[in-house]
Amino acid sequence: MTPLFRIAGLLIVSLLLLIAVPAMAQVPDTTQRKPALPTGPPAPVEQNKPKQERTQQQPEVQVKPEIVQAQEEERTTFVDRLYFGGSFGLQFGTFTNISLLPIIGYRVTDKFSVGTGVVYHFIRSGGRTLQNYGGRAFAQHEVLPGLINNGAILVHSELEVLNIEDLRIGLNGQLENFRKTVSMPMAGLGYRQRMGERASFDFLVLYNFNDLESPYSNPVIRAGFNIPFRR
Fold first, then answer.
1. Which domains does the chain carry?
2. Where is the signal peptide (predicted)?
């Protein structure tokens, strides 16, 4: 065989091998194989546990006593702040004097209060009768609380307007009654003694800034009670 035929034969064999090898690689493996079972210990199963939320502990807030007192005052109703009372005086004999001074007050705070009242005087002397009537408005403030046996010093101011009945000599030379209106600003100090949680007793010493026309001489001394509407 000539060398030319040998070379041609080798080329043909090489070409056939190139075609056969890829074809053999694409043939699917039809051999049935058993699935391999795991031989080691089972893997741990992770359970979906709910995430625990971390709660941050809030620092404890200390409330000041002044704030607590202010909150309690806000919760107090209007009726709880009202109180009534006043003072009266009785004198009988050749000179009779009956004085009635009822009041109604409102506690703005535990130490400061305002109020109003009426004034009535009945005077009888020498067979003649005189009557005075009017009204007044006042403001009070407690200072130095707990001074003596749960008491306090009281700063008091008021304006009293009084219609006064008085005597004068008429044109006929005889005494006759006449009336006039007098305004009397007064201020002073006092002592308040508490009786229970809200009731109290007041003793006042006031100075009358218009003592020339008023029936009061200085100093004006008053004593009275304060009683809450609701206990």
1. 70-228 (2.40.160.20)
2. 1-25
